[in-house]
Amino acid sequence: MGRKSGHGFYDYSEGAVKPEPNTDIVLGTKIVDRVVAMLINEAIDALFLNIASAKDIDLAMTKGVNYPKGLLAWADEKGLDTVLAQLEELYTNYCEDRYRPSPLLRKMVREQKNFF
Questions:
Q1: pLDDT, tens digit, for every residue of 99-108?
Q2: What is the DSSP string of 14-58?
Q3: Residue 62 DSSP symbol
Q4: pTM of the predicted model, to two decimals?
Q5: How many CB atoms lie within 10 A of CB 43?
Q6: Which one, of 28, 45, 62, lies nearest residue 107 by Cα?
Q7: Degrees (nearest 5) of the Cα angle 92, 93, 97?
Q8: What are phi and psi for residue 94, nearest 5 degrees?
Q9: Three-class SS of residue 66?
Q10: How many helices (H) and strands (E) does the chain have?
Q11: How far apart are the first and last CA of the chain?
Q12: pLDDT digit string (tens) for 16-31?
């Protein structure tokens, strides 16, 4: 319900103690890596399914979403083998399709290729 009704996950009543945010840098890095790996995988799938070219995908992410770099360029920078390893670990741990690596990612790692 939230702040407007005064009910929900947090206590919005007068004088309530607000929870402190978690400042664990290791946890924060792990969360960012997980999200970026998933986004990169989706971008690779878009390329695999011929939805857009690699250049257009990265242009959309930098100009449309205002990311600091395109996801495919980011994948090259991180290392495709690193992204694949992250996704495989997540898939093994959670067995959820959202972590299933793209066939194109697997192929590119096997062939030791990059996007740019």
A1: 999 999 999 9
A2: TTPPPPPPP--HHHHHHHHHHHHHHHHHHHHHHHHTTSS-HHHHH
A3: I
A4: 0.84
A5: 26
A6: 45
A7: 65
A8: -110, -15
A9: coil
A10: 5, 0
A11: 47
A12: 888 888 999 999 999 9
